[in-house]
Amino acid sequence: MGGWRNAVQEAAASKPLFLTIYTTIIVGIVATSFYVFSAIYSPSASTSTQSISTSWLSSPPLSQNGGSNFSNNISQPTDKASQPGSNQLKTIWEAPPSNSKMPPLESFKLTKELVGERAKDNVIIVTFGNFAFMDFILTWVRHLTDLDVSNLLVGAMDTKLLEALYWKGVPVFDMGSHMSTIDVGWGSPTFHKMGREKVLLINAILPFGYELLMCDTDMVWLKDPLPYLAQYPDADILTSSDQVVPTVVDDRLADWKQVGAAYNIGIFHWRPTEPAIKLAKEWKDMLLADDKIWDQNGFNELARKQTGPAVDDDSGLFYAFDGTLKLGILPESIFCSGHTYFVQAMYEQLRLEPYALHTTFQYGGTEGKRHRLREAMVFYDPPEYYDAPGGFLSFKPSIPKSLLLDGEHNLESHFSLINYQMKQIRSALVIASLLNRTLVMPPLWCRLDRLWFSHPGVLEGSMTRQPFLCPLDHVFEVNVMLKDLPEEEFGPAINIREYSFLNNPLLPQQVKESWLDVQLCQEGTEDCHASSNTSRPGLLRFPKNSTEEMTREEKFRNRMKRYVGIWCCVESHTPGHIYYDMYWDEKPGWKPAPPQTPEEDHPPF
């Protein structure tokens, strides 16, 4: 394999920027698939086409200053209010002079004056996080500033993030919580601690007298939400939800009587009213008294103490909590969850413009959230993301109409469709590995939805179309694919990009415009040899059997087996999940079925 790999890598280093590979691969006995591979070899992507400079993700050296406890890092409200207009806001992204010194940590305290400096029309928009989520935070800020919204603040949970944001010109305050700078993981004790910080933050800002639009860092704004929120001046709180069945078909507030899903606290707007402040305090007291309560569950428990009646006939607001709090639920179609946006495309079907996208309902951890936003082309990566060493490789899968559209949508037809695509992707990963290129994943078609609980294929009442373009994490373990696996056990890393990568406007134009066609051919046929020499200008041919040899290579197989996850969940069976198998075609009679015994309940490795 070593000699062949060297020969192909030599071919990959030829000058054309794009590489297109035409190949015919036998599927089963009589079926064939024809698909196109393309690859990019870009020596140095120009930054002139980028809307973000190369310094966007860079920072000066960090100081060793520590933080203080958040509870001690909030100044009490003063009588002196600060209500500057938008023309007085300091420009975001305007970095301090490089020869200046970092101000003392004390100057980043959360105060009424600090909030007032950034507020506009008495509204402040806030998110917070640690250094591990810095790229999410920069994306969050960038979307708002692109919408000409600048009345925002970012809470830094560690000094590393605080200093990095300061040097980029992002308004930041110190939460002093001494958080770890690494990804904390959903559901972990540190994750729950972050939730408590949110509650403390809300309780700190509301007494300042400003309206607060509180956001998680794993969401982005696609449209200025402030005019929409201002339409409901009587609301004490407006919250998003996990509702996946539409309750309205226009841009009105959700029908609160039909919302059975949890209120989601990743996007919610608070006004500094007495009922809202009372709820915030009870919420804080509840969480501090019991560290096992998840912050969102606590909010839902309190808010749902009373549900109804309606405040009036028209607004969509209703009384909640203690009967005095006026609550509204943001419409699920345009304040989108990961399901209503990526799976149902509800806003698109209803011909509405989405305001927000929150990466819930996904299965790949932080890496999965990032990949989802990249699929939607709403994540801001640095220029080097679009200029990978060795270049890129992409392909257009060929899917028979019968697999995609014919027959019932059931387990068998879903897995037949996925397995067909999976085998093509496996071959693409082989070629990407041989050429040392980054694979642009193809769009993935699914017949059935994936959830955490049993369901009949799609959720009843939802707008999920069948088949639908499903996120990569519905089938593939995105977090594993992007992880540094030990090379001695899993072979060389194979980098990937999202299916929409080549359509992203941030991709340099010269990378899009130069192509080299490559054919995978049968060894022994004319001009079919492992060489960097082209048989004619713009065409390279090399043996197909090399991909078959690579597929059998043990380390590569170890890697591939871990790249796929589960489908979930079968009704009336425990456990209800079914493992995908990258090498399903090597197992005669393979059928999709959940584990029948505890001993069978493991991935296919």
UniProtKB/TrEMBL annotation:
UniProtKB keywords: Membrane, Transmembrane, Transmembrane helix
GO molecular function, one term: arabinosyltransferase activity
Domain Nucleotide-diphospho-sugar transferase as annotated: residue spans: 149-373
Keyword set includes Transport: no
Region spans: Disordered: 67-100
Composition bias type Polar residues, residue spans: 67-90
Entry-linked Pfam families: Nucleotid_trans
Protein name listed in UniProt: Nucleotide-diphospho-sugar transferase domain-containing protein
Originating organism: Gossypium klotzschianum
Taxonomy of the source species: Eukaryota, Viridiplantae, Streptophyta, Embryophyta, Tracheophyta
